[in-house]
Amino acid sequence: MTQAPTPTADTVRRLARSLLEDSGKGGRAGGARSAAGPDVRPVAAGAGPATWWVGTRHVLRLAPDREASVRRRRELRLRDLVRPHVPVALPSAVAHGEWAPGLLCVLDTRLAGGTAEEHRVSAVGEADLAGLLTGLREVPVRQAETLGVPRVPPRSLEALRRTAEEAAGRLAEADEFDPGRLSRLTLPAAVQLAAQPGTAVLVHHALTGGHLVVSVDGRVRGVLGWDAAVVGDPAEDIAGLALAVGAPAAVRAATLAGYGARPCLRGLWLARCDSVHHLAEALTGRTAPPPALRTRLRHAWEPIMLERVTDLGRADDVP
Asked: How many helices, marked H, and strands, marked E, lie in the chain?
């Protein structure tokens, strides 16, 4: 496979100028401009950045390989399918093309606001998240699959529990986690919280803090990152929200969206097992784990109270 070239500011600037001109918006990028094109800068530091700010109004995303190009092309159509069903904004494509042979680039509108990593989601923002979850459930699954969105089976909470227990031991050795906390997820509970048949919906599958556009007043104004979407277990998005904004907020949003105790508890334990596993994996590396992983662990393990767990036929206090 041919190695993709490393994008530079000059090549990105020329590419952005061409896309803006093709879209008829060449003079409306926002921000400083030069003879070579609009002002551009990487969204994140690192070699060969794949996402660039273009002026103040646009974002240019460069697919790093052909597989990512396929997902990005699918995402363009999926966003149009999802947009009428959700109360939050999704980016709109201004123009797209190839930045290298076979590699897609997409120039999107930039959604105004920060991220859930920068701003705490308010109570009204939780209602926005509830609207998002409700809307995803209303998206016609067959239409999503026609666009190429893959259907994935639900994960085994029993298998995740075993993996998390091993990871928790490693975290305990590093004084990062009390493995006794996992004892609350017993084997019978893991079996009881298995995904129910016939519950598959469109799942964003990447509801990270960086993909939630949040205003300074805590409203969720938009959602990014739709190229990872699947048809599958709605508890995965509840888990994503638990990691991004905290378990209590995620459960409140899911409850507002009409989800009962079973998917809420399942999402909570998916998040808790994932957070333990991911931090343990990062600790095996030679460098310190990103602070975001510790934040996700803390978010997932925030205490919640489910006073009436009618789906499971009993009252339950989940600490």
From this structure: 10, 14
Token pair listed for 2: 């041919």
Both tokens of residue 36? 């070579």
Output the pTM of the full model.
0.91
Count CB-CB contacts under 10 A for residue 253: 28
d(CA 298, CA 275): 9
Per-residue model confidence as pLDDT tens digits over 107-138: 999 999 999 999 999 999 999 999 999 999 99
Length of the chain: 319
Query: Per residue in 155-176, pLDDT tens?
Result: 999 999 999 999 999 999 999 9
CA distance 59 to 29: 10
C-beta of residue 238 within 8 angstroms of C-beta of residue 264: yes
Contacts of 259 (CB under 8 A, 6+ apart): 133, 234, 238
Three-point CA angle 10, 44, 69, nearest 5°: 75
146: number of Cβ within 10 Å: 11
Distance CA 49, CA 60 (A): 11
CA 6 to chain centre: 26
In 83-199, which ranges are continuous DSSP H helix? 123-138, 141-146, 157-173, 187-192
